[in-house]
Design a protein that fits this description.
The protein contains 11 helices and 10 strands. Helix 8 crosses helix 10. It is elongated, with a radius of gyration of 23 Å.
Length: 306
């Protein structure tokens, strides 16, 4: 069904020669390269999906097959790119991660959201899914207990672990629930610092957190857990290794007054566009087409044995 839908769309758009970029779809697209007359097939891997329970049983062998079958594999971090090479790809390229940041305008004027009205003291914000698959509840508890004057503002839906956690009993931890995407910039604009307190596991160690670009696009000083996947952000984000560094770096972020750092963060985040990623995809296609052409010429030049 997926192949038929793509073929129909290609026909409607009058695409007679096209390339297929498969972005993270796994089980539904295992046979996709054989069902479409694409010139080249590229697989884009930007998360360790196979570590999620739903994918654990069949995900590893399916992903291995996709990587080996693809004419090129695209990744968003050096850590995931290193992982790819364990599966012997034909070609691999780091293209980064595109973000839609048009909503996140640091210079805009936002009305203070009503559910922030009664909060006094430094506001430290997190936006996104609150899940123990990715976040360290114990770290958040420790920060809240040791720095009661800091207000932790957690915006997003919660999994069962978060719903049952002692964080809900702490006066300086505020769960604001899910918000529409268009409202998030207003909340971030009133944060004194932003956080991504990841737990370190197979799922998070190499991932690219989109929320970091959103925080930086708003110019906010940001503290995140040190992981190999966060190396890309090391010049613009405080990367903390362990509870003590978290406390120290959050304090530093809250003291920060340098306007040049705000400008640098905004400029860095705005460079992470899908247009920039697409340009790297085009360059990858050009490279593999040249390699294919050279191989074909080499084969045609070989003498024929009578």
């Amino acid at each position: 069904m997926l192949a038929r839908s793509i073929a129909k769309a290609a026909q409607q758009l009058e695409f007679t020669n096209y390339y297929v970029v498969q972005d993270g779809i796994m089980f539904h697209a295992l046979t996709l390269p054989d069902q479409l007359p694409a010139l080249k097939y590229l697989y884009y891997l930007r998360d360790f999906t196979i570590t999620v329970p739903y994918f654990r049983r069949h995900g590893p062998w399916v992903e291995d097959a996709l990587i080996r079958r693809a004419d090129a594999v695209l990744t968003n971090t050096p850590y995931i790119n290193d992982y790819i090479w364990q599966h012997q790809p034909k070609h691999s390229t780091i293209i980064g991660q595109g973000c839609v940041l048009s909503l996140y305008q640091a210079g805009a004027s936002y009305s203070r959201p009503a559910d922030l009205a009664g909060l006094a003291g430094p506001l430290i914000g997190y936006t996104g899914l609150l899940t123990t698959l990715r976040l360290d509840i114990n770290l958040l508890l420790s920060i809240a207990r040791q720095r009661p004057e800091w207000q932790l503002v957690l915006i997003g839906p919660e999994d069962d672990d978060f719903k049952k956690s002692a964080l809900h009993k702490m006066p300086n931890v505020h769960f604001l629930g899910r918000k529409p995407p268009e409202e998030l910039p207003a909340y971030l604009s009133y944060m004194d610092a932003c956080i991504n307190p990841q737990t370190i596991n197979e799922l998070t160690i190499g991932n690219y957190p989109l929320k970091i670009d959103e925080y930086l696009a708003m110019g906010k000083p940001t503290v995140a857990t040190l992981t190999p996947g966060m190396d890309l952000f090391q010049d613009y984000v405080y990367l903390a290794d362990g509870e003590q560094q978290w406390l120290e770096m959050l304090a530093q972020a809250l003291r920060e007054q340098d306007p040049t750092q705000i400008v640098a963060r905004i400029h860095f985040a705005q460079g992470h566009t899908w247009a920039a990623c697409a340009q790297l995809v085009y360059e990858t296609i050009t490279t593999i087409e040249k390699e294919t052409s050279a191989e074909e010429q080499e084969v045609s030049a070989r003498p024929t044995l009578a």
